[in-house]
Design brief:
It is a single chain. By secondary structure, this protein is of the alpha/beta class. The chain contains seven helices and twelve strands. It has helices at about 25-30, 30-35, 40-50, 70-75, 90-105, 120-125, 220-230, and strands spanning about 1-5, 10-15, 15-20, 55-60, 80, 105-110, 130-145, 155-165, 175-185, 190-200, 200-205, 245. A nine-stranded mixed beta sheet has the order 4-3-5-6-11-10-9-7-8. Strand 5 (about 80), helix 5 (about 90-105) and strand 6 (about 105-110) form a beta-alpha-beta unit. Helix 5 crosses helix 6 (about 120-125). The longest helix has 14 residues, at about 220-230.
Length: about 250
């Protein structure tokens, strides 16, 4: 619990509980990826988020119930999802569990190739297919909605020196808010930051994060994820009181 004082008024802000889920397969199989993320993508994201004051936990595919037990999800306000090689191997029971928690108010942030995860496709109701090219291309991630909370503190754009190209057509429903659009060195564009609402839950898809590039060490990228956590945290999340704010007054 964090307390903020304004004169003689005190506001109590509950710490947002975040679970970072990562397959943790690439880092164990591919020496190139292991050299970039020796302790896993999930650990790098968690380390980057430490200064933001969230309560952080990590979970991986190889853990019992993929680390996403009912108890873990009960105490998760926002779930971050990075997946690639094991999309179809994630147990349907766990996907359904996450799906129900999102509808009940748990936030969900889906990163990079997580667009093909069972959970994202279930929430979108589409194939979530896209154009892609696994080459090293410079990416400019443009802010198209500077007033959106997820874009707070970012400026006009984020420059990513090398990234896998994702391009349109991206088979998703029209986002409720489009926060970022990317342009790539090869000429393609992509809706790279899309916000959705599903019943009580908020969902943010964020494209950067190919495993062979050190993108999650970029402070601006972590800042977007931190902003998205705050945006996605719902008053209907883990152990709620009215929102994340409780006041003495």
């Amino acid at each position: 619990m964090i307390q903020i004082t304004f004169g003689d008024k005190t506001i109590k802000m509950r710490t947002i509980k975040v679970t970072i889920w990562n397959e943790f397969i690439h880092e164990r199989k591919d020496p190139e990826v292991a050299a970039i993320y020796p302790n896993g993508i999930h650990k790098t994201i968690a380390d980057g988020l430490i200064p933001y004051g969230f309560q952080l936990r990590t979970a991986t595919f190889d853990q019992p119930e993929h680390g996403l037990t009912e108890e873990v999800l009960k105490h998760t306000d926002v779930l971050i999802w990075w997946g690639h090689l094991a999309h179809e191997k994630v147990a349907d029971e766990i996907v359904e569990r996450v799906y129900e928690r999102v509808l009940d108010g748990m936030g969900l942030i889906v990163l990079h190739s997580g667009h093909f995860s069972k959970i994202f496709k279930m929430l979108m109701g589409t194939s979530c297919d896209l154009k892609w090219r696994e080459t090293e291309e410079k990416e400019i991630l443009w802010v198209v909605d500077p007033a959106h909370p997820i874009a707070e503190g970012i400026g006009q754009y984020i420059e990513i020196p090398q990234e896998e190209m994702y391009g349109e057509f991206f088979d998703i429903p029209a986002p409720d808010q489009l926060v970022f659009i990317s342009s790539f060195e090869g000429g393609e564009v992509f809706r790279s930051g899309c916000a959705f609402h599903r019943r009580l839950g908020k969902i943010f898809y964020f494209q950067p994060g190919h495993e062979r590039h050190p993108i999650y060490y970029q402070k601006e990228v972590i800042r977007v994820i931190a902003n998205a956590i705050r945006w996605a945290a719902s008053p209907h999340g883990a152990e709620p009181f009215f929102g994340h704010f409780k006041t003495d007054i």
